[in-house]
């Protein structure tokens, strides 16, 4: 008989702790506590469900990820378990494995855990951006350009900048954070709210500043999705310099290469 | 005849997901672009096979890329749809309960109308009988804009119609919900909102405006295909897709 350990929540945000071999709690309060089931538990669980049920749950998990990804909101494992898996939480690892495979094989999207502690997932694109322009204009594009500029500046300046640096730069590019912009609307909100929620940027208060100032860093999604090598290439072209001439940034770009490596498939790009 | 799914299919699918709906020409261009990007052979007339390959993989997720006609210009469109038949579930993640209720009321008005349109005034008035939390006038206007932006409704001169994407996606739901009330086109057999009706009281068949244009093209004396009575309505012009030039 497996030990039933009661796990308590430490904070309001639910954090799942890994206890291999221990049982799961069946608590159904708002903060779902979820323990990763052991391999043997998963095996036993799989014996009790039909293949059709497993496929059904996989499909629901895939749908859930796609819906969240549309809004660029990371998926919390706890929510996935509570809202989608429900009574099938004991075969969670198997379902997640299948969902990841489907997302990869059908949609060309990679499931990535950006926060191993809090178990947050995002989807990143496995397909490289195509060289030629797509004949179909994607509605979200202008903001990507804005984001790329900001990420580039932050990266080139060592990974963190005070907010004023960004606002001044944008003003020079005729994107005034104080005014409503034709393509971006409330620029400040896009940068400090939308991009932060999507985990592209971190907007953190600098302590002891009066009036309050913030600094900007790369967010977890940017770390996974955006290629620092590419930024250096673009900078190199812009300034007509060899990317290697920025030795520090070059080292940084090539040390974190694994996380941004996009495993394209048969194409030579 | 479906091949293995490759990166060209995935790229196509990703674009469909980002856009929701694209016209036939766009789809053909996209097909070509995807194949070229991934150095795959592309046969232009093989678009439907290409899409079949994708659809086979989408089926377990209750998703499909479906083709349908715009009631506005008669052109063919491809839309990525959810296949859940029994409700407007696709929208429930983006809209609150009372917003969904208003959308359904708008749909009621459109289905019940003769011309497939609902005026903003009528929509506003319909909120008097809402069972969920009532929406204010400004909220309704904002909501209608959102519905148009999200491609569920189309708007022209203050009148709202169901968008092409909405019709393609919700056809099964509409047929089930409005069984006897919903009009069906005699020519193409899909649901019809903006259509013409045979005036013969014993006949009364409906034909989409663009289907009328195609069916009666060049005929000096248009006659109802079912009862052969004179077809009294104005025959619209066939609308050619943008880059097609025909003399």
Précis, in short:
The complex is a heterodimer of chains A (269) and B (247). Chain A has 269 residues and is α+β, with helices and mostly antiparallel strands.
Mean pLDDT of chain A: 80
Q: How many helices of chain B? A: 8
Q: Fill in the CATH topology of the largest domain in chain B.
A: Arc Repressor Mutant, subunit A
Percent helix range of chain A: 40-55%
**CATH homologous superfamily (4th level) name of one domain in chain A:** MAGE homology domain, winged helix WH1 motif
The biggest chain-chain interface is: A-B, 31 and 29 residues
Shape type of chain B: globular
CATH class of the largest domain in chain B, anyone?
Answer: Mainly Alpha
CATH hierarchy: architecture of one domain in chain A: Orthogonal Bundle
Strand order of the largest sheet of chain B: 1-3-2
The gross shape of chain A turns out to be elongated
Rounded Rg of chain A: 22 Å
InterPro entries (chain A): MAGE, MAGE_WH1, MAGE_WH2, MHD_dom
Organism (chain A): Acanthochromis polyacanthus
Protein name (chain A): Necdin-like 2
Pfam families (chain A): MAGE (PF01454)
